[in-house]
Amino acid sequence: MSDNHWTRRNFVKAIGTTTVGIGFSSCAIPRNTGSKGLTQEALAVEPLVKSEELEKPNITVGYVPVNDCAPFAIAWKKGFFRKYGLNVTLNREASWATSRDGLIFGRLDASPVVSGAVTNARIGAEGARHAPLCAAMTIHRHGNAMTMNKAMWDFGLRPWYEYQQKYGDGALAAFGHDFRSYFQQQPTEGKVWAVVLSSSIYEYFIRYLSAAAGVDPLKEFRIIIVPPPQMVTNVRIGAMQAYMVAEPWNTRAITGNQGIGFTFAQGKEIWLAHPDRLLAVMESFIDNYPRTYRSLVKAMIAACQYCSQPENRQEVAELITDVSFTGARPKQADAPIAKLTSPGIIGNYSYGGFDGKDRTIKSADTTIFFDLPNNLVEPLGNHSTFLWRSQSIWLMTQATRWGQISKFPKNADQITERSWRTDLYRDIADEMGIPSPQDDYKVEPPEMFIDKIGFDPSDPVGYLKRFAIRANAPTSFFMS
User: Fold this and answer.
1) Interval 396-409: pLDDT, tens
2) Rounded to whole angstroms, how far apart are CA atoms 95 and 453?
3) What pLDDT score does 222 carry?
4) What are the residues whose beta carbons fall under 8 Å from the beta carbon of 205, sequence distance 6 or more?
5) CB-CB contact of 265 with 244 (8 Å)
6) b/e map 94-107, b = 16+ CB within 10 Å
7) Which family is this protein grouped under (predicted)?
8) Could you tell me which residues are beta bridge partners of residue 114?
9) What CA–CA distance (Å, rounded) separates 300 from 293?
10) What is the tens place of the pLDDT at every residue in 242-283?
11) What is the distance of C-alpha 96 from the center of its chain?
């Protein structure tokens, strides 16, 4: 099928200005730049840090209308920003590209970015503008999934866990057969997956999954970029067949809601305990406003801790349904207000389907904001907001594997040291009485990945050579 392979640029020219454009305009969220003023709860908070002690107490912080805006919403509502001397203007971003670029061009002081964006801005991966971005904490882990349309269901594709139940060790091969067979029957415009940003971990997950199943993602289908709130409509109008995005935009697609697709897999099923969003700033922000930055990180850690507590999650799920945040409220008047947001926050997650079967799975690790659930055996002192520099190295292996950079950077450790600031996190967390792991790097064991191939950050090039499907892979010739 390689003769049908288009570049992303060609595809966007061909379809992006027509059908996709129609979908984009038809489902735009009403303009709202964020919550205004202070809540009564926030006003009642006694500041621990005085604003006049900070170099820049008045800052603008972005967020994107997906479930992981929860810590930003909580920091605003509960007064964690105020507690640490910050006067924050929250600004809702249209996409993950604007969230990142708002930092680079100075419109935002801080903003969440997709995992990979910080490192890729440093290395200049495809689709990433060169910029000295930094992050000292993870906003959350997990909380995302892959949605496939009804036609893929009708063809016979099913949620990943059902392949595991039915085929055991042969699950990847069985899925690969069904996956390839479906796309082989589609015209060129019917072989499209969408993600939220080029060079994001979501793009890497889609490519990683398909390659693990023996399907070359560089040849069999194309990947396009679509903002989260526009995913569902663009599947409905046929502009794409599948997508990967954060909640609640997968839950919104299933039967009982929009009914246009089903969840194939959560991201945690591709790589367990993966980082999803990072709190990013420009390096100059840390240098010029060190006390302000420390206050910001403290406020966000406190908010993540609040979101992590089981007794708070219903409140969190309801808060983010506000139009200022996700705007994801059900149309049915008698439906629970958090029908769309609570599955990803509380953990009563439904994969959907079109056969009437209940595929709701309860799990404590559907979205991880701070405390790690018992199924994750992690180093002493670890928690979700701690950044592992070794995971940044993994992201660079994926940029290399898929040809977004020509070769793995020789100075990868130095890049990671400057961009994933575990040194700052430890110092800040220590002031809050929070212990942190003493190492920056850890081995990811085989059971963490869908293909059971572990990752040792001390040998990233050797790791890359283990994969037969990759960009610029050597070609083997055999005599007949």
Assistant:
1) 999 999 999 999 99
2) 32
3) 93
4) 146, 244, 267, 270, 271
5) no
6) bbbbbbbbbbbeee
7) Belongs to the CmpA/NrtA family.
8) 277
9) 11
10) 999 999 999 999 999 999 999 999 999 999 999 999 999 999
11) 10
